[in-house]
Design brief:
Helix 3 packs across helix 4. An eight-stranded mixed β-sheet has the order 1-2-4-3-5-6-7-8, with helices on both faces. Strand 5, helix 4 and strand 6 form a beta-alpha-beta unit. The protein has a single domain, classed as Alpha/Beta hydrolase fold, catalytic domain (Rossmann fold, 3-Layer(aba) Sandwich), CATH 3.40.50.1820. The protein has seven helices and eight strands, in the order βββαβααβαβαβαβα. With 224 residues, the protein is an alpha/beta fold.
Length: 224
C-alpha cells in the first residue's frame, strides 16, 4: 500500500485543517482532492487515496469535520448538518491552491466526492478554478445562476433507485448545466444511494466498477 502522509494547512482565517496524502510513483502528476461521505475522513478514504495514487494521481483526502469521523449514522447526520459552509468552502479552495503550489503536482487539480463530498466536489469547482469535478451521488440542487461560476467539466454518477438524490433532481441538474452553458457528463446506474461504497448496504459491484473506470478515464483526460 502506498505511504499515506498527514499534511496540515493553515487557512486564511487562521484555522488549521488536516488531510491525508498519497503520491504516485512518478511525479509531477495531476492531483485529486478526495472529499468524504458523512462518515468523515476515515480509513475508507485513506484507502481510496492510496488507490488513486496507484492510478497515477497525487491523492489528497481532506477533512471537513475538523478531525471527527464516525460509523454511527445519527452522529454522521449531525456532523453533516453541522458543517459551516463558509469554513468548508475556505478549506476546499485552500487545498486546491496548496496542491497547485507543490512541485510534485503538474498544476492540474480535480475533485472527487462521495455523497456529502459529492456536493462539495461540485462546490469546489464553483468556488475555485479546477480542471475536473466528479460527483458520486451528491447534492446537485443548484440554480443556473449558481452554476454560472462553475469551472471545468463535471462528471456525475447517480443511482436510479437513490431516495436521497432522486432521479428528478439529477435530471434537473443535467438540464440546468446545459442552461448555464456548462460541460457535464451524467451517468445513471441501476442502483441505490452510495452504490460505490464497498461493504455498504447498497454496494453494487458492476455499477461501482463502471463508475470507477469512467472516473479514471475522465480524470486522466483532464489532469494528465
Amino acid at each position: 500500500m502506498p505511504k499515506i502522509d498527514r499534511v496540515t494547512l493553515e487557512l486564511p482565517s487562521h484555522r488549521t485543517v488536516n488531510a491525508d496524502q498519497a503520491k504516485p510513483t512518478h511525479t509531477p502528476a495531476g492531483s485529486v482532492i478526495l472529499i468524504h461521505e458523512w462518515w468523515g475522513l476515515n480509513d475508507e478514504m485513506r484507502a481510496l487515496a492510496a488507490h488513486f495514487s496507484k492510478q497515477g494521481f497525487v491523492a489528497l483526502a481532506i477533512d471537513l469535520f475538523q478531525g471527527e469521523s464516525t460509523d454511527d449514522p445519527a452522529r454522521a447526520r449531525e456532523l453533516m448538518t453541522g458543517i459551516d459552509p463558509g469554513l468548508a468552502n475556505e478549506t476546499v479552495v485552500a487545498w486546491a491552491q496548496w496542491l497547485r503550489s507543490q512541485s510534485y503536482c503538474n498544476g492540474h487539480v480535480g475533485a472527487v466526492g462521495y455523497c456529502l463530498g459529492g456536493g462539495w466536489a461540485l462546490n469546489t469547482s464553483i468556488a475555485t478554478p479546477i480542471e475536473a469535478a466528479v460527483i458520486y451521488y451528491g447534492n446537485v440542487r443548484k440554480s443556473a445562476d449558481e452554476l454560472a461560476s462553475l469551472n471545468g467539466p463535471v462528471l456525475g454518477h447517480f443511482g436510479r433507485q437513490d431516495q436521497s438524490i432522486p432521479l428528478d433532481v439529477v435530471e434537473k441538474f443535467s438540464a440546468t448545466l446545459k442552461q448555464a452553458g456548462k460541460s457535464g457528463e451524467i451517468h445513471l446506474y441501476d442502483a441505490g444511494h452510495a452504490f460505490s461504497r464497498a461493504g455498504g448496504p447498497n454496494f453494487d459491484a458492476p455499477s461501482a466498477s463502471l463508475a470507477e473506470q469512467r472516473t479514471l478515464d475522465f480524470l486522466h483526460a483532464h489532469l494528465d
